[in-house]
Amino acid sequence: MPFPSPRLWVVAGTLGNPGDFSPRAKGALEGADLILAEDTRRAGLFFQRHGVVPKGTLRSFFEHNERDRIPSVLSVLEQGHDVALISDAGTPLIGDPGYRLVRACWDAGFPVSPVPGPCAPVAALCASGLPPSPFTFLGFLPRQAGDQRRLFLSWAEAATTLIFFERNSRLRDTLETALECLGPRELCLARELTKEHEQIILGRLESHQDMEWDPRGEMTVLVGPPEAREKTLDVVVDQMLSEEMLTGPPKQVAARVAATAHGWSSKEVYARLIALARAAPASRTP
Ligand code: SAM
User: Fold this and answer.
1) Ligand 1 binding pocket includes 94 (Cβ within 6 Å)
2) Where exactly are the structural domains of the chain?
3) pLDDT tens digits for 259-286?
4) CATH superfamily name and code, 121-223
């Protein structure tokens, strides 16, 4: 018997597409004596829809009762029974509760096994075209702009693809804060993954205003790693040219604005601008 009882099963559900629910996940849920679910009503509906016939008790397990629930879960394991943990969407612990329980199980000597499956950050990453490794999952971002800024700045130098969850109502402001802290980078918005209205939108952080998406549904955001300085400089300069900043403020001021916004010296931006303008049509000459 490869998986002797008792143990905690961490069971992935779906991101919304029933076809992704695995036979192994069904088996783990049906074999458990206790099933912990974020929302028991939703879990009940999920079981109906996916033909899961649980033999065990279904009990709520969410962020605010996780600590209190742990002793009773451990006592179920002590009696030799299996426990399964599921979340409302995808994989438990990923933006969802369960971490403290998993630690507590190991600390008490009970094994924990995953039943892997859909997971929004990983699903988004593998369809994004962004470098898949290393990647860093930031979970849900803090609500306050100051806290967000501190978080982004702490990752600004790291050569990693950043992945986070954000609510649609805050997404524009968050992308603006990310741009201020991280500078120009590739951006991928992965919306309603695996569902009928899935949208995977590729763009850039500095031009997120040009990107459009349906404000309904679930969104996972990916920001590419810092780019080679030369490439970033070209992006800044291209943006200046395409926005025709040269017809607005004097060229040195434009260079300074771009430099301040993106961490380049105005001398560097201006030199690149001059070089490009020399090779460009007369209307673009600074
Ligand atoms: N545990 C889940 C997982 O494995 O991905 C994530 C649950 S977390 C509470 C919910 C967040 O995941 C949503 O706010 C959204 O950012 C993201 N998410 C969930 N389903 C998604 C989907 N189908 N497409 C894109 N993002 C999704």
Assistant:
1) yes
2) 8-118, 121-223, 233-284
3) 655 666 777 777 777 776 666 554 443 4
4) Tetrapyrrole methylase, C-terminal domain (3.30.950.10)
